[in-house]
Amino acid sequence: MPRAHPPEFRRWAVELAHSKEQPVSQIAVDLGISDSCLRGWLKQADIDEGRRSGGLATAERDELVKLRRELRVRRWRSRSGSVLQHISQPKIFSQNEIHLHR
User: Fold this and answer.
1) What is the mean pLDDT of the chain?
2) How far is Cα 51 from Cα 14, in angstroms, rounded to an integer?
3) What CA dihedral angle connects 37, 42, 47 and 49, to 10 degrees?
4) Which residues contact 58 (CB under 8 A, 6 or more apart)?
5) Residues 24 and 47 in one domain
6) At 33, which helix (H) or strand (E)?
7) How many Å apart are CA 29 and CA 38, to the nearest integer?
8) Beta strands in 1-102 (DSSP E)
9) Residue 10: other Cβ atoms inside 10 A
10) Domain count along the chain
11) What value, to the nearest 5°, has the Cα angle with vertex 78 and ends 76 and 84?
12) In this predicted model, what pLDDT tens digit does every residue of 43-93 receive, in sequence order?
């Protein structure tokens, strides 16, 4: 997986592309990134700024990731908690059960 670029770099690349001084493909080559990468950043910037619909804004996506992570942790704790509960609570046998096992 390619290394993520810092947010400042992404913002700068989007500003360059929005200036329309050069074609997007040329800006991408100059910055050492792929054309599709820069176009994806442009699309996300347009969504974040309300100029385009059809996707989640970055803040919404971040919140969704956070909520999914919290849900996954709660489900894991719930499952592991029930297993631990069964392990930590010894079974108490009645006198009849003890006699049956002899």
Assistant:
1) 87
2) 14
3) 140
4) 44, 47, 48
5) yes
6) none
7) 10
8) none
9) 19
10) 2
11) 100
12) 999 999 999 998 999 999 999 999 999 999 999 888 877 666 666 666 676
Chain position carrying tokens 């059809």: 54
The domain in which residue 78 lies consists of: 59-102
The C-alpha atoms of residue 16 and residue 28 are separated, in whole angstroms, by: 10
Residues 36 and 68 in one domain: no
Q: Give first-to-last CA distance, the chain, whole Å.
A: 61
Q: Helices 7-19 and 24-31: crossing angle, nearest 10°?
A: 150
Phi, psi dihedral angles at 65 (to 5 degrees): -60, -45
> Do the Cβ atoms of 42 and 31 come closer than 8 Å?
no
Pick from 25, 33, 53, 21: which is nearest to 10 by CA? 33
Residue 94 burial by CB count (10 A; 0-12/13-18/19+): exposed, middle or buried?
Answer: exposed
User: Is the pLDDT higher at 99 or at 16?
Assistant: 16
